[in-house]
Amino acid sequence: MTEKDHELPYYEPVGNEIDLFERAWRNHLPLLLKGPTGVGKTRFVVHMAARLGLPLYTIACHDDLTAADLVGRHLIGEGETYWNDGPLTRAVREGGICYLDEVVEARKDTTVVIHPLADDRRMLPIDRTGEMLRAPDSFMLVVSYNPGYQNFLKGMKPSTRQRFVSLRFDFPSPEVERSILIGETGCSEDVATRLVDIGRQMRVLKNVDLEEVASTRLLVYAARLIHDGMDPVEACSAVLVEALTDDEDVAEALLEVIRASFG
Amino acid sequence: MADLPHNAVLLRDLERTSSALFRALGRDPVLRVAAGRVDLGAWRDEELLCLPQWLAAFDDASLNRELYLWFVALASAFEPPVDGDWAGANEAAIARIVRDRPGIAARHDRLLAAFGGDVTRLHLNPPPNAAAGAARGVRLREDRDDDAREDRPRRTDNITHTVKMDKPAAVAEFIRVTREDDGDSDEVALPPTTGAEGTSAGARVRFDIERPSGPHEDIEIGHGIPADEWDYRKRMLMPGHCMVQAFLGRSAGGEALPERLHKHAHKLRRQFAALVPQRQWIRGQPDGTEPDLDAYVRLHADRIAGGHEREQNLYIAQRNRERDLSCMVLADLSLSTEARVSPAQCVIDVIRDSLMLFAEALTATGDRFGLFGFSSQTRAQVRFHHLKEFGANWDDAARGRVAGLKPGFYTRIGPALRHATSILERQDTSLRVLLVLTDGKPHDIDYYEERYGIEDTRMAVLEARRRRIKPFCITIDREGSSYLPHLFGVNGYTVLRRPEDLTARLPMLYAQLTGQA
Known about the structure:
Oligomer: heterodimer
Number of helices of chain B: 15
Radius of gyration of chain B: 28 Å
Strand content of chain A: 15-25%
Shape of chain B: globular
Largest sheet of chain B: 8 strands, mixed
Helix content of chain B: 25-40%
């Protein structure tokens, strides 16, 4: 560990993702992160921005997000109007990283601004002001999506996905997940081992009894509460059971899994 | 079940919980729990844990509940003995659990104390067919090339919920069947216990397992179409393994909607007309009936700022948005749909009425829809009934075909689903929905049963999803449905406890599923 590493946001690599990110950045390629919720996609981007020393603009996409929200708009002030850069424009101007989280949630018209930035043109047209911004070398576009939310009306268009270098995130191995829990919360080895085991048992139920399964993030929450002195069964019940299901029968089964480990 | 002791706990109330728990503790999504005969106790085999329908071992109902959960935990750690030492295998599993799972160790101690220290009361029994299977072995000899298939003893008669099956199959469960080929007739030897009067043990009778549909013989359309099947043991899709034969159901005579359905149909048509999206306001139009204030403010601000003059799309306009979707209903027509749901009605009657009303409702939305049915008789003939094609009108002829539906044969869902997928795939809409109506689990007279059928069906569902088709299963299997989540996913199915609800629920489900479209 170098001294600089101490200042970086905690991130436990699971494969070659850091190398891939750096290569993509050096070669001016945009990056697509896909994977279930809570496995560290956002944390990874935060970590990489800090590692590369770049400003990071994160935008959580939603179904009302328009191109103007990304690019910017004129605001009306006292007797005058002024232009206000959107987060994407700011990232381009400053040569930072723009991270669009859950990009499929955004409206279709956002692809109009994403496409020219994501291919080798690396341009951002601002049609309101007639400006045409060329992205500096250090600028990078990163988007994420969760293939789990299969919605027939909201898939990612092939023409969009094929502009990105893709990186798949999945649940980390038990060993890595254990060190994440300990590294994030300082919980004991024993608590981390049991939580990871509970998480893995619940993940078996994906697409059978549960739609979404226990993410590493949820396990971190549980570890934090337990580390704070909360009863483990109560902590897991609040964090893992209620967050994952509304079905009482399945909730009962999850609770039994927790009780089996924590007694 | 009226005379159950007051302290008894019913598995029915715990089935979903124990199934999910079994999967989680056993770390395998295919595991499931089924209700079995009370006198057989708890036992498990490869993917199934069979628990007594009810437990009343203790006066305290909460202890009976704990006993169920104990069996689930024990089964998840249990490894069947190779040497037949069941007690030893139980003890080893108990030792593992007590070591690894403090919570269950505490339960073990509580239950053991309540049983007065008799540890065998906490044991799993050997599967009933481990002992009886050899005597009652049912051998099916299939194609020579299917050498991977082991001779699996059937155990269905020990599980209450699957006893209710297609009748010839149910008969076959209890008698020794030696099949020479995928053939048309079977030689059956009746064991002494089921021997009819005058039949001595081992007497041979012939009976025809095919049920000819008599005067209502359906009309074959074209030649057989090959369909694939998934063999989970080989982890391999076997291309063209099954033959699908299309049939045009013979109409029971051009028919109008039955009188008794008129009122309901009228109501549904009105409700479904409301499903058609009302005219929608679309912003930023070059022309329209109302000004778009947001667009106007934006333009004004841009102008003052000396910004670029852009197209002036300053109006909002109303548009009709079309429902861009097609829906196929695929109904199970196997013989088990002959089961009665009430003195006056069979499952098939409910299916007929539901199809009628569903079609009436859909004509009000203008959505493209097709009605099809399926049954099967070994892999050589998966019967696919065309009741109403996608392009065709919902007319008296189509109604007549629905009215003339007759149950027959078995439930080979996988290949039927694949064929349905290929038809639905040709419909040029952005959303394609496949509604499957069934009353039981995948099952055919050959080796297509239990895990084989379930895995094949699951694979067919995944293939359909991959082709951007949205499958949804409505089942009227009243007694057991623990395998459904594995097949269709957590939001991909619904179970109707009372089959008669189908008529009302089917249209409503459709509205719910396609509401956003």
